[in-house]
Design a protein that fits this description.
The protein is of the alpha/beta class and 347 residues long. The chain is 40% helix and 19% strand. The protein has a 7-stranded mixed sheet. Strands 11-8-9-14 form a 4-stranded mixed sheet, covered by helices on one side. β15 and β16 form a beta hairpin. α4 crosses α5. The radius of gyration is 20 Å and the shape is globular. Bound molecules: 5-S-methyl-1-O-phosphono-5-thio-D-ribulose (MRU). The site of 5-S-methyl-1-O-phosphono-5-thio-D-ribulose (MRU) has 18 residues, from α2 and β9.
Length: 347
C-alpha cells in the first residue's frame, strides 16, 4: 500500500512541497511553496486540507517564515515568524490541528537564541510533527483494524486519508491497516458535497492502492444502510470537544442514520485533534463561499436571488459515536474525553 507523503520539506530546494489537492483526480501536481502568503492561500483554497495535514502545514509554515526571513537580527526574525503564525492560524478556524502544529513549533522556538537557531529549530520541530503524524496514523490504523470484521464494507465521508495527513490516513488508515492484516474491506465513499473530497480524493487514493471503492452521493447513504450494504461507518475529525465530534458537513447525518440502522459509527483521530476542555457551543464552524454551492464547473445552478448557507463542518453529539480510535487506543462509551486525555498525558 502506498506510503508516499502528502506534504514534505525539500531540503535541497529549501521549500515546502505538497500535492495540490484541488486538481485531483484529473491532475497530479506537486507545488513548491516558498512563501507564507502563498501557503495561506493554499490552505484557504484547500490545496492542502484535512486536519492532521493542516497541523503539519502550519508547522512547516512557521519554518518557512523563519527560513525566508530577510533579517539576521534575532528579534526581527521572531517578529516575522509570529506574524506568519497568526496569518496561518487565521486561514481555517475549525480544524484544531492547524493551531496545534503552529503552537508546537512556536513553543520549540522558546529555546532559540539566534536567528540561525530559529531557522534550524523550527524546521526540525516541523519535521518531527510530520513524522509523528505518520506514526500516529499507523497506530490508529492498528487499533481500528481490530474493530472491523474479517469481511466488511465501510462507509466513509470526506477524505480522512493519506491526503488529509502526512501519509496513511486516519479513517482510511484503519481501512489500510485492516487490509494489510488480511481483512477483506470494501469502501463506500460518499461524494461529500459541496467540494467532493470523497469523490475526488478518497476514491482516487483508495483506487491507487487497489482498494475496492464505490462512490455514492451523500443522499444515498441511508438507502444503502437500509439495504444492509454497510457494516460500519468510519470518519475522521477536525476537532473533538468534550461533547461532540466536528467533521465535514454531512457527518452528523451519517451518525444519525447509522444509529437508526444499528451500524457502528467510529471516529478515527489523533489526540492532537482533541479539544476536551471546550464544548460544542464554543467552536466556530467555518462558513465558506456561496459559489462553492451555486456553481458547478462553469454553470450557475442557483438563482442570484436565493440565499445560500455553506457551513464546512457539523457537530455530531458524542452519544452517537460508538468509539473513538486514537493512537493510544480505543475510547468506548461512555466516552469521557477529559479523563482519557489526562490518562494519556500521565502515561
Ligand atoms: O474541508 P476539509 O477538506 O479540510 O475537511 C476535512 C475533513 O472534514 C476531514 O474529515 C477531517 O479533517 C479529518 S482528516 C483526517
Amino acid at each position: 500500500l502506498d506510503t508516499s507523503a502528502t506534504l514534505w520539506w525539500d531540503s535541497h530546494k529549501d521549500c515546502l512541497c505538497y500535492i495540490e489537492q484541488t486538481l485531483l483526480p484529473g491532475e497530479y501536481r506537486i507545488i513548491e511553496c516558498r512563501d507564507v502568503d502563498r501557503l495561506a492561500t493554499a490552505i484557504r483554497r484547500l490545496e492542502i486540507r484535512g486536519a492532521p495535514a493542516l497541523g503539519v502545514a502550519g508547522a512547516y509554515g512557521v519554518a518557512l517564515a523563519a527560513r525566508t526571513s530577510p533579517h539576521t537580527d534575532f528579534s526581527k526574525v521572531m517578529t516575522g515568524v509570529r506574524q506568519a503564525a497568526e496569518l496561518l492560524r487565521s486561514t481555517r478556524p475549525t480544524a484544531i490541528n492547524l493551531g496545534w502544529g503552529i503552537d508546537r513549533v512556536l513553543k520549540g522556538l522558546a529555546a532559540a537564541r539566534t536567528s540561525d537557531e530559529v531557522r534550524t529549530i523550527s524546521l526540525r520541530e516541523a519535521e518531527n510533527i510530520a513524522a509523528e503524524d505518520t506514526a500516529c496514523c499507523h497506530a490508529i490504523g492498528g487499533h481500528g483494524a481490530a474493530l472491523l470484521p474479517d469481511r466488511c464494507t465501510v462507509l466513509t465521508h470526506c477524505n480522512a486519508g493519506a491526503l488529509a495527513c502526512s501519509s496513511w490516513g486516519t479513517a482510511l488508515g484503519v481501512i489500510r491497516s485492516a487490509i494489510e492484516a488480511g481483512k477483506d474491506v470494501k469502501v463506500f465513499s460518499c461524494e461529500t458535497r459541496p467540494l467532493l473530497q470523497g469523490a475526488r480524493l478518497t476514491a482516487w487514493e483508495l483506487a491507487r492502492d487497489g482498494i475496492d471503492v464505490t462512490v455514492i452521493t451523500d443522499s444515498m447513504a441511508a438507502h444503502f444502510m437500509r439495504a444492509g450494504a454497510i457494516d460500519a461507518v468510519i470518519v475522521g475529525a477536525d476537532r473533538i470537544t468534550h461533547d461532540a465530534v466536528f467533521n465535514k458537513i454531512g457527518t452528523y447525518t451519517h451518525a444519525v442514520t447509522a444509529r437508526y440502522h444499528k451500524i457502528p459509527f467510529y471516529v478515527a483521530a489523533p489526540l492532537s485533534t482533541f479539544d476536551a476542555e471546550r464544548n460544542e457551543r464554543d467552536v466556530v464552524i467555518e462558513e465558506r463561499a456561496r459559489e462553492e454551492i451555486t456553481i458547478m464547473g462553469n454553470r450557475t445552478y442557483v438563482t442570484d436571488s436565493a440565499k445560500v448557507k455553506n457551513p464546512a463542518f457539523d457537530a455530531t453529539p458524542m452519544e452517537l459515536v460508538t468509539a473513538i480510535i486514537t493512537e493510544k487506543g480505543v475510547l468506548r462509551q461512555p466516552i469521557d474525553t477529559r479523563s482519557h486525555l489526562s490518562f494519556c498525558k500521565s502515561h
